[in-house]
């Protein structure tokens, strides 16, 4: 083979097809329009790793060919592609400082019953159940509820099932694992879930935070973590404003420690690192 010769390697050969600059640009525009997520240059490998199996499934010879299937933004394949691109790593009691902080926030919002906490980017539910476990330990009255939401329909279904690999339970503190976790048997061998009393206080719903929200009622605490980093400054401001309107005056919003609201004009004031409070008078 001379240096001028090339070999086309297709999906049938088991090698990922590269994404061209034009294809990547099209997909970044598509993803931004549907989710508000900004996919920066350098994320080509991420797109390829997440969507490679879908190209194989449809025997598509290029990303252009696959993108033709989802270009309308509707239909099952578009939903699958968006689910694959918006599902992020999560685990129980991620950034544990927030779960240590939560009980200290409760007295100032305890006058409202039931106490309501929203996990606004809950992914597969680990954050929402971590909140529920914390509330169960520190507010045994049971007069509280946790609401979880995510962009992905598929991942919301996973959260609602509340069934996790047994290895994931190692991140749950031992005393809470003993009190609330149940080991699966039979077809659920190798998995665990939570007792019915805890699960009954946790509900999930598919939501797109970059779109107008339905009537969700009001919340005492909102966890808005590990999602703002994917948005442009303008989209981030819109999402924070939208979510903040669901907070009761005096309620709290928590972001990840890698995120900040600095520079945004909001109804929130800094309370502690990555913790913000809605002003009493807005």
Automatic annotation (TrEMBL):
GO biological process: methylation
Catalytic activity: L-glutamyl-[protein] + S-adenosyl-L-methionine = [protein]-L-glutamate 5-O-methyl ester + S-adenosyl-L-homocysteine
GO molecular function list: protein-glutamate O-methyltransferase activity
Keywords: Methyltransferase, S-adenosyl-L-methionine, Transferase
Pfam families, A to Z: CheR (PF01739), CheR_N (PF03705)
This enzyme's EC code(s): 2.1.1.80
Keyword S-adenosyl-L-methionine: yes
Keyword S-adenosyl-L-methionine: yes
InterPro entries linked to this entry: Bact_Chemotaxis_MeTrfase, Chemotaxis_MeTrfase_CheR, CheR_C, CheR_MeTrfase, CheR_N, CheR_N_sf, SAM-dependent_MTases_sf
CheR-type methyltransferase domain location: 12-281
EC category: transferase
Protein name, UniProt field: protein-glutamate O-methyltransferase
């Amino acid at each position: 083979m001379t240096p001028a010769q090339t070999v086309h390697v297709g999906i049938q050969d088991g090698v990922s097809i590269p994404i061209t600059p034009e294809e990547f640009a099209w997909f970044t525009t598509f993803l931004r329009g549907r989710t508000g997520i900004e996919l920066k240059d350098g994320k080509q490998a991420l797109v390829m790793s997440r969507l490679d199996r879908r190209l194989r499934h449809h025997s598509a010879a290029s990303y252009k060919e696959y993108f033709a299937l989802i270009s309308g933004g509707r239909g099952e394949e578009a939903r699958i592609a968006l689910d694959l691109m918006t599902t992020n790593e999560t685990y129980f009691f991620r950034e544990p400082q927030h779960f240590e902080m939560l009980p200290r926030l409760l007295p100032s919002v305890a006058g409202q019953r039931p106490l309501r906490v929203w996990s606004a980017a809950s992914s597969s539910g680990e954050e929402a159940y971590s909140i529920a476990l914390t509330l169960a330990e520190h507010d045994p009255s049971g007069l509280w509820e946790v609401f979880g939401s995510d962009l992905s329909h598929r991942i919301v279904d996973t959260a609602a099932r509340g069934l996790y690999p047994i290895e994931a339970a190692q991140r749950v503190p031992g005393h809470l694992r003993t009190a609330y976790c149940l080991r699966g048997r039979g077809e659920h061998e190798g998995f665990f879930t939570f007792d019915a009393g805890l699960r009954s206080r946790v509900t999930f719903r598919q939501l797109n935070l970059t779109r107008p929200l339905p009537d969700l009622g009001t919340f005492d605490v909102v966890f808005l973590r590990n999602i703002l980093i994917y948005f442009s400054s303008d989209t981030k401001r819109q999402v924070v404003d939208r979510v903040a309107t669901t907070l009761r005056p005096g309620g709290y919003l928590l972001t990840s420690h890698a995120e900040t609201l600095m520079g945004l004009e909001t109804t929130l004031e800094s309370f502690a690192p990555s913790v913000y409070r809605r002003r009493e008078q807005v």
